[in-house]
Write a structure and sequence with these properties.
Layout: H1 3-38, H2 41-45, H3 47-50, H4 52-63, H5 65-94, H6 99-125, H7 127-144, H8 146-162, H9 176-189, H10 194-206, H11 211-214, E1 216-217, E2 224-225, H12 230-240, E3 244-249, E4 251-260, H13 261-271, E5 281-282, E6 286-288, H14 293-303, E7 307-311, E8 317-322, H15 323-331, E9 345-347, E10 352-356, H16 361-368, H17 380-388, E11 397-400, E12 403-411, E13 414-422
Parallel strand pairs: 2-3, 6-7
Antiparallel strand pairs: 1-8, 3-4, 4-5, 7-8, 9-10, 10-13, 11-12, 12-13
Helix pairs in contact: 1-5, 1-6, 1-7, 4-7, 5-6, 6-7, 9-10
Length: 430
């Protein structure tokens, strides 16, 4: 082997080694781009305890996504351009004509296969392991190319500015849907507790809900009339045990204030005997049915109030919404020491049940095996009112098919409970 052949062989080996290094670089940066932007946050959080230093390094890289993507692109472009240049040089020696086109086709296919598709597929499947390995060399490379990265970043920002494109203050942000998807993934992986997941979803949904969704309808609200005596007031407060009571004058549509039990209790102890309780009625806070619950919560916190009166678009009182009602939209049912869990159906015997007027008609159909149309009435209370045609008194009865309805409890203009008895024979209607 003469000297020229030996030099040619050594040069070939050097070129092949260089290509292997460059393809490895291209694959590394291409895979890093996929891995760092596809690994779920919940998976990364698993490194917090097992490998704190690695977690901190990865967190620093992800903290500035724009800087990370520019670093990855610079590294990848350096490798890919170098590969194309070497292929062009090789084919120009081997071929007299068409070397440029051939080298372009071969280098493009090779880079696409070994520097893009394969490494990205590997990085996507083994994302968490990939970022663990890649975080250290990528951090080192990011520091080395800092001057180049700075120049590229400023030039790209300047060009975008000329075309009227304004970069967001945060390069990467989570939309509501993406954040909620991450929470769901965290719940599936066990990183997020089920209760925490439900709370996060409820927080997002709170801004979509309005006062009408959380309020207690006016017919279900315990109110007191302005003209009752102090003794009658105390009697009612002992029965219903509410700490805040709406006060109306003439009609329940005319709420004139809110009475706080603590105010009455304090002054009753000081003065004893009869108390002019109307002097302690506080001014009500009215809100429209369409007021956002998140805005209402902020307003009630700012005003330091716990109860608001909800009014319709026609100015009539629709109901009452309390701080507790809004918090229940976030945390679920909240019961205090005075709350009694209401049973919608209480069996008396095999053919008789006490049914709450709040029971949905479709649930009533299921329990009693009937098929009453629920398009016109939502609850048993609405059905009973329809059957009587007027507001019935306690003890009044009405038959419907093979069912007998007896009114058990009425308060004001609202039916609360009915006794339903299944009669022998007959057939329930629609």
């Amino acid at each position: 082997m003469n000297t020229s052949e030996k030099e040619a062989r050594e040069e070939t080996v050097d070129v092949l080694v260089l290509l292997v290094i460059l393809f490895s670089m291209s694959a590394f940066f291409s895979g890093s781009e996929t891995a760092f932007f596809s690994v779920p946050l919940a998976r990364l959080n698993s490194l917090r305890e097992t490998s704190p230093s690695t977690y901190e390094r990865i967190a620093r890289l992800r903290s500035d996504p724009k800087r990370l993507i520019i670093t990855v692109l610079i590294g990848g472009e350096i490798a890919n351009i170098s590969i194309s240049s070497i292929f062009t040089s090789l084919f120009s020696r081997l071929m007299e004509q068409g070397s440029e086109v051939t080298s372009l086709i071969v280098s493009t296919c090779a880079i696409l296969m070994f520097g893009d598709l394969i490494p990205k597929s590997i990085a996507f499947v083994h994302g968490i392991n990939y970022v663990r390995v890649a975080s250290f060399p990528l951090t080192f490379f990011m520091k080395v190319i800092t001057p180049v990265r700075f120049v590229v970043e400023k030039i790209s920002s300047g060009i975008l500015y000329l075309f009227g494109v304004r970069e967001p203050s945060e390069f990467l942000y989570f939309s509501e849907s993406k954040f909620r998807t991450l929470v769901d993934e965290g719940e599936k992986s066990g990183e997020v507790d089920r209760a925490e997941s439900r709370l996060i979803h409820n927080i997002f949904e709170l801004s979509d809900k309005v006062a009408r969704d959380a309020m207690t309808p006016v017919n279900d609200v315990f109110m007191v009339e302005k003209g009752i005596s102090f003794g009658e007031l105390l009697r009612l407060m002992k029965i219903y045990r509410h700490s805040r009571i709406p006060v109306y004058e003439g009609s329940r549509n005319n709420v004139v204030g809110i009475l706080y039990f603590k105010d009455i209790l304090k002054h009753a102890k000081e003065k004893g005997g009869d108390v002019d309780w109307l002097g302690y009625v506080r001014e009500p806070y009215f809100v429209p049915e369409t007021k956002s619950l998140s805005d209402l919560l902020n307003e009630m916190q700012r005003r330091k109030i716990h109860m608001s009166v909800v009014i319709s678009e026609y100015g009539t009182v629709s109901g009452i919404v309390t701080m507790e009602d809004i918090l229940e939209e976030l945390f679920g049912e909240i019961r205090d020491e005075y709350d009694v869990e209401e049973k919608l159906v209480i069996p008396i015997d095999e053919r008789t049940k006490i049914v709450s007027a709040k029971l949905p008609v479709d649930e009533f159909n299921r329990i009693f095996g009937v098929s009453i149309d629920d398009d016109e009435f939502d609850t048993v209370g609405g059905l009973v009112l329809h059957l009587f045609g007027h507001l019935p008194k306690r003890g009044e009865k009405v038959k419907f098919g093979n069912l007998e309805f007896t009114v058990e409890r009425v308060q004001g203009i609202r039916i609360h409970e009915v006794r339903v008895r299944t009669l022998g024979g007959g057939k329930s209607g629609n």
